[in-house]
Amino acid sequence: ATIADASIQRGQGGETHQIATGKTPVLTTRQGVPVSDDQNSLKIGTRGPTLMEDFHFREKIFHFDHERIPERVVHARGFGAHGFFETYESLADITRADIFQRAGEKTPAFVRFSTVAGNKGSADLARDVRGFAVKLYTQEGNWDIVGNNIPVFFIQDAIKFPDLIHAAKQEPDRGFPQAQTAHDNFWDFISLMPESINMALWIMSDRTIPRSFRFMEGFGVHTFRLINAEGKSTYVKFHWKPKLGMQSVAWNEAVKLNGADPDFHRRDLWDAIQAGDYPEWELGLQLFDDAFADEFEFDILDATKIIPEERVPIRRVGRLVLDRTVDNFFNETEQVAFQTGNIVPGVDFTNDPLLQGRNFSYLDTQLKRLGSPNFNDLPINAPKCPFHTFQQDGHMTLNNPKGRANYEPNSWGPAGGPRETPKGFQTFPAEEAGERRRARGELFADHYSQARQFYISQTEIEQTHIKDAFTFELSKVERPDIRARVVSHLVNVDEDLAGKVADGLGMELPAAAEPARAVMTDLDPS
Ligand code: HEM
Q1: Is the ipTM of this complex over 0.90?
Q2: Please, what is the angle between helix 480-493 and helix 495-505, to 10°?
Q3: Is 148 a catalytic residue?
Q4: Residue 72 annotated as binding?
Q5: How far apart (Å, rounded) are the C-alpha atoms in residues 220 and 29?
Q6: Would residue 411 be called left, alpha or beta, if left means φ above 0 and alpha means ψ between -120 and 50 degrees?
Q7: Tens digits of per-residue pLDDT, 166-222?
Q8: Using N-to-C axis directions, what is the helix angle for 353-370 and 161-168, rounded to 10°?
Q9: pTM higher than 0.90 for the full model?
Q10: CA pair distance 416, 404, nearest whole angstrom
Q11: Angstrom distance (rounded) from CA 369 to CA 371
């Protein structure tokens, strides 16, 4: 509404009162009581104390006082948009997932892009991994592919996630730096976790300073399963391929942009969609079977490794289009709850120990963050297909079961509420056997080959950027022993790269890092 939509009146103290004229709605309290004066609290006289009975004032301040909810423990800064997924062709031979049954079918989608380590108010162009979380509102329930723009991850086992994130975020005594990668704790952790070296190469590449969300790839990272109607399982890795291709900014551009416009990425996505320039990605599947998994030189359950596209080509099976900005940032982008555990019939997990841990973590953290076990009733989280449960009550209940029966089995016949169906979700009956142990498979142990493969696959200019990024980030690390330990891993990746980084840091080239356990014995900071 413009000022012209209200008639202006002046109060005794000269304050402005904009009076509803019929073109704008009447301002009310949350109880619907029309408000006559939103400029002055209720006082004794004009200079006396404020009265407790001012329910309008109390309600307004009470609500304001409670506006904040905890930011996400990771991926706090994000930006979302609505759109749809369109299936190119039926994949019924591979999966019974409803979304893949009919060519041309469109499924509503919501996507949230994010940085990982920065707080909610941090700058968009930090050197960081980007989250690429997709919620697909299928006709058989919500399916979330909670991915990143990098196909590998830092750690192999979710038990290390709190350590990784503690090391990446601000240091606990000083509360800085905001620049996630450029500090001692982060590189200390990386240097002691050789499994993170492959990821370290990827994050020092230009992929972590994308030009915009529209120019990023996305990856489900883990190996999942697709299950067809006969119960046959096919392993799958999920890829999002941007129609615009991949583009990044240069580091000096990132630094300038962060100062000039910390909202650069959100503004870009908002502006593009508002202008009708809808960004689009194709969903690619890498599909493989047990025979490939057995012959592959890495473990398909190891999230620090890719499966090269040369080995298992990508099949493009649909497109994701973002064509609608949110109506309200908090309602949608903040309150959306993605979960790796949200899968649908036709999709299943594997034993990837990172994925297994994530399946616990998201639900757990979202109860804390959103405050009620009923967060799935928020419109952004609710399925768009019919849903019926016997869950009830709790804070902010909206969808209690109707009628007398709130349990099953029951003998109330058709009035007794929902029933099971044999067509429902069925866990793939994978055989499991073995001792209970805290251990990893032998194939998890090669931390350098894929890092080398990644580095040598880059163009010369991209390799220079990786070298520059390592040199710059490590130059911010105060302790020489941490710098040396990181470079000692780089020696195992590529000696030329290690030599150039050592030169840039003005240090001797250290000996190649020994396997993890040997490195761990030398922890004296002196
Ligand atoms: C949030 C991706 C590993 C715990 C997120 C988000 C993404 C993501 C995209 C943001 C979701 C949003 O936009 O709301 C990934 C990927 C991982 C990974 C690709 C590895 C392949 C982990 C692990 C854990 C974890 C190992 C814990 C064991 C969390 C938590 C949140 C989160 C607690 C905040 C969720 C919320 O508050 O709603 N992750 N993550 N993540 N992730 Fe992960």
Answers
A1: yes
A2: 160
A3: yes
A4: yes
A5: 45
A6: alpha
A7: 999 999 999 998 877 889 999 999 999 999 999 999 999 999 999 999 999 999 999
A8: 60
A9: yes
A10: 7
A11: 6
